[in-house]
Write a structure and sequence with these properties.
By secondary structure, the chain is an all-alpha fold. The protein contains 26 helices and no strands. Keywords: Repeat.
Amino acid sequence: MSPQNLIKVPNNVTSSPSTTKWISPLQYLKPASIVPPAPSPLPPPPPPEPERRRSRFISHADAVRLINRQTDPQRALDLFNAAAAQPGFAHNHATYSALLLKLARHRRFPALDAVLGCMSLEPCPFHEAVFLRLMPLLCRASLPDKAVHLFRSAIPRLVRRNPSLKALATCLDALVETRRFDLAQDLLTDARARFSIEPNTCVCNILVKHHCMSRDLDSAFGVLEEMRASESAKPNLITYSTLMGGLCREGRLKDAFELFEEMIDKDKIVPDHLTYNVLIDGFCRSGQVDKARTIFGFMRSNGCEPNVYNYAILMNGFCREGRAEEAEEVFEEMGKIGLQIDVVAYTTLIGCLCRQGRVDEGIELVKEMREKGCKADVVTYNVVIEGLCKEERFKEAMGLLESLPHDGARLNVASYRIVFNSLCARGDMEKAIGLLGLMLGRGFRPHFATSNKLLLGLCEVGRVADATVALYGLAETGFMPESDTWFRLVESVCRERKLKRAFDLFDDLLMAERVI
């Protein structure tokens, strides 16, 4: 705003040449012998107008980041629409991909279908990758038909080209993993007929896995022979490892070892740690741990030094047979050769010691884990808690339940149920009712059968008031007692001539059942 606009003429003064005295600017250059008249005070300038905050333009990268950050899929959809409402903005593959995956992971499948419909109206090209990521999510959500629809229809329409071999392998594997073998076979036939896709080694390996999972080993070996005769789908290490695993699960260990030797001699394929693990695990599960041990020597003679997973499988085999001393020897050997022992190996040995009543040694191993920077997980703690309960060391077990969460350990509902079930089985209702309060306060609920057992046990020892309080607490979590438990509880309340409490309890439970 210019200075002229800040000067205003008062309303009671007329601005005309006859009344306004002209003052030459040269007067300001002369000595101030005569004081000029004081100028009229200028009115204060008006307050500046507040600056309007310009809304930030949401770019494609911003939209993707904002959609991925949302935990509410509806909020992600609102952001997607808000970005589209901007002048000059058009969604692209990245923004559509972010929204599709967000909706699929939150199982908002009607919205997912609507977005896929909108994509067909977009001029931008889409890539196959997003549909490959959607296929396993749809199959795990029991929507395998939608996954097949993506392969047959969505990819050709939106990507504007036929599905790739990778798309076939992804969809086929998702169907096999969810045991939809019927759709898997139809998909393979359709891929050949409509899209002229010939299976490669990866697709054939999925077929081998499919036959092994359905326990049709003859068909699995038929695929192997076709692969050997093929020029584009030769068998590889995964092919043989899958077949050996299928044979081991059927108890055909001799055939598995013969196939192992055939792989080396006939197809000149060098086995790796995973292939050896299949054999080690097969022998261990069949109770032939000593034969599994000999495979270690065979590995070393072929230049393949056993890794931590090979040792863990062998140690688990010894533990399964109750041979704790030999499991400890394997554990110590791992440390001597410099392997980094992980939480799985520690937990395996701790479980073996606890099952043999050597809980204190297991606890020492937990301490050793902390010293070596190997963080124990909930499975490790549950193994120790179960060992303490088997020795009826309930005070120590309950002490762990109380203290471990404060030390940063994350327990689960099984941690509490192990102790609660043991207390109820032993008839220690005093400790059980105390643990119930801790469980409910932390958001965990006991098993239905154990809850009924607790209420019956409290009634048997005459602690009707505690049984009533426990029932109210359990009812708030949605628990409703069995009819026998309910009749026994009402009978105990009536025996104490407290009919009003019985009727109040009955009314409250009926109300709770209606709400549920």
